[in-house]
Amino acid sequence: MADKNAKKKTMTLAQRKSLEGLIFVSPWIIGALAFFVWPLFVSIRLSFSEMISIQGFQMKWVGLENYKYLIQTSTTYMPNFLAEITNTLINTPITLVFSLIIAILVNKDIKGRGFFRTVFFIPVLLGTGYVMQQLLGSGTNQVIDLPEGLLMTLGGDFAAIVTEFLNRITEILWKSGVQIILFLAGLQGISSSLYEASRVDGATEWENFWKITLPLVTPIILLNFIYTMIDSFTDSGNKIMSDISHCFTTGSFNQGAAMGWLYFAFTFLLCGLALLIMNRFTFNQGER
Amino acid sequence: MAKAKAKAKKADKSNLSFRDRYTKKHVKRFIVLLGIYLVLFDLAFVFLYPFITMIIDACKSEADLVNRTVKWIPSGIEWSNFKVAFEGLNYGKYIWNSLFVTVVATIGHTLICAFIGYGFARYKFPGKGIMFAGVILSMLVPTQVLIFPQYMTWSSLKVLNTFVPLLVPCFFGFGLRGGFYIFLFRQFFLGLPWEMEEAARIDGCGFFRTFVQIMLPMARSSLLVCAVLAVVWHWNDYFEPSLYLNMSPNLSMLPTKLPDMYAALGQLSSEAENLPDIGADVIVNQAICMASTFLVILPLLVIYMFVQKQFMEGVERSGLTGM
User: Does residue B34 fall inside a structural domain?
Assistant: First the structure.
């Protein structure tokens, strides 16, 4: 007893603090073990093996067979894969640019900004699920009809790009609600004293944007970049995702898992690359 | 003060000629403002277009749908569309399922993620870096990859076709975008000053009480942001409920009923496609589809109308640039 007491007393402040911290994150630790680490492990193992019987999870290790099948034999996987990757790589930068512009405009002290903020948040209310897919899919996304004469004068290739862009734009804008919100939050966090100081020094708004706003929102750009990529990769309208769901409902679990992991590995690589590149340009206020 | 100044300025200028009053600078500012409004209205139109089309289409009667000249203003509101949609979705019954899951999951996500996020923001403990990487990873790994092992786990626990698989992970910081909320709260708590907590601790307040009585009230704005996003995402979630609840029609939720509705109406219209000219059925279905879609998101619109102002204030105060 006395020994225990003595031990308790020797617990330093730092130790007690770290114990309290662990108590705070303990729900997450339990959750991670139950809902994340184990499924992650099983899913990786599934992708490298062949299911013998679903009862009791009997699996045979087959190495890279499932992956080989997807890359070499499957006729639908690689085209879908490439299509979705291109799609994401095109959409992500456009989403970022548009949501930053919108956030900056809506952050200005102008009349009716409450209205605009509400409008730009509406797509978030519709979620990213089935409802949005239906709304965007039912021909409502062709907001802007270009006159045919204009397209003719623009010439074939360019006209195709323009129409493609216009067809994309609603979808992109509709999926940038959360990004706008995050940018808005970031812009609000920039101290107005910086702008005041630069105004005293005679800087224009254009210079303010490049020298103050942009450097200070770089962390949010990074966050939004990753969010957008993930959102686009895991979108329910994504062909690969529906293929994976299809695999699981029809019982070809190994292939489903391999599909998921191959795709996810690539996503992860892209995100990691983005992190590496953008970390060099990210400005953290805390570091000074 | 500012008003008086403006008044003085105005009085000053009233003596001047038009040219002096509106200098180049004024004109420039006016043009910039005009440009901003133009861009904003353009974008607002693009944002609202599908939404408005949905509402207008939902109100159209058969005659309006066939009539090509009726695009924006229907001749009247066809309430029967909503009635058919209401009955087809079994709205009165399934809305309660949706509400129950959304409310419970949102409460779980909001409170628990605030708790966890606070731990990540304020304490140092061994393994913190790895754990936070785990939080980010849980954001990155798509549900579809993990769904099968999770499904097997729930099935071995014999809780499939109940709400348990949808609700329990929310209370552990997982579930639908759980990692995102933890990240949000961590950012928010990082930006708060230490003084309040230190004062509370010196006065002998325990760590749990400090969190509940001091930090949570301060995090009101972030709690609201998190809650609104959680409500929206849980309400619209389609993938997990359709998988976990597919054997128990009693527990269906509204968004999972919507594809059934579309499929049923789609069948009708595909039959009609064989007809030589555009059958009225096809287009009537479009109206009913839109009406049912509208009904599904209606509760969200109502909720958002009430919290919109506080939500935007919460966004402004979430302190995300303090990363």
Answer: yes
Number of domains in chain B: 2
Give the model confidence (pLDDT) of B305-316 as tens digits. 888 888 887 777
Same domain, A124 and A190: yes
Which residues of chain A neighbour B34 with C-beta distances below 8 Å? Answer: none
- Please give the average per-residue pLDDT across A40-53, as a whole number: 80
Question: A166: burial class by Cβ within 10 Å (0-12, 13-18, 19+)?
Answer: middle
Structural domain for B38, as ranges: 24-80
- Gap between the Cα atoms of B112 and B106, Å rounded: 10
What pLDDT band is residue A178 in, cutting at 50, 70 and 90?
confident
Dmax over CA atoms of chain B, in Å, equals 86
Cα(A22)–Cα(B120) distance, integer angstroms: 9
Same domain (yes/no): A250, A193: yes
Question: What CATH number did the domain enclosing B280 receive?
Answer: 1.10.3720.10
Closest partner CB to B43 (pick from A42, A173, A241): A173
Query: Which structure tokens are listed for B26?
Result: 């004024």
Provide mean pLDDT across the span A125-148.
60
CA distance to partner chain A, nearest, from residue B127 (Å): 10
* Residues A185 and A234 grouped into a single domain: yes
Instruction: Give the CATH number, domain containing residue A236.
Output: 1.10.3720.10
Q: Vertex B263, ends B258 and B265: CA angle to 5°? A: 95
State the nearest Cα–Cα gap between A156 and chain B, in angstroms. 26
Domain with A33, as residue range(s), is: 2-47
**C-beta of residue A28 within 8 angstroms of C-beta of residue B131:** yes
Q: Identify all chain B residues contacting A169, using CB atoms and an 8 Å cutoff.
A: 46
B10 falls within a domain: no
Q: What are the start-end ranges of the E strands in chain A?
A: 49-53, 58-61
Do both A182 and A230 map to the same domain?
yes
Mark A75-101 as b/e (b = at least 16 C-beta within 10 Å): eebeebbeebbebbeebbebbbebbbe
Distance from CA of B282 to the nearest CA of A (A): 13
- pLDDT category, A54, cuts 50, 70, 90? low
Backbone angles phi, psi at A52, to 5 degrees: -90, -55
For A22, the closest of B125, B182, B289 (CB atoms) is: B125
The size of the A-B interface in CB pairs under 8 A is: 264
* Cα Rg of chain B (Å, integer): 27
* Residues A77, A188 within the same domain: yes
In a domain, A52, yes or no: no
Contact predicate A182/A220, CB 8 Å: yes
The reported pLDDT for the residue numbered A202 is 87
B46 contacts on A by Cβ (under 8 Å): 143, 169-170, 173
CB distance A110–B48 less than 8 Å?
no
B138 and A32 in contact by Cβ < 8 A? yes
User: Which tens digit of pLDDT belongs to each residue from B16-49?
Assistant: 566 666 677 788 888 888 888 888 888 888 778 7
A104 with A13, same domain? no
With beta carbons under 8 A apart, name residues in chain A contacting B286: 138
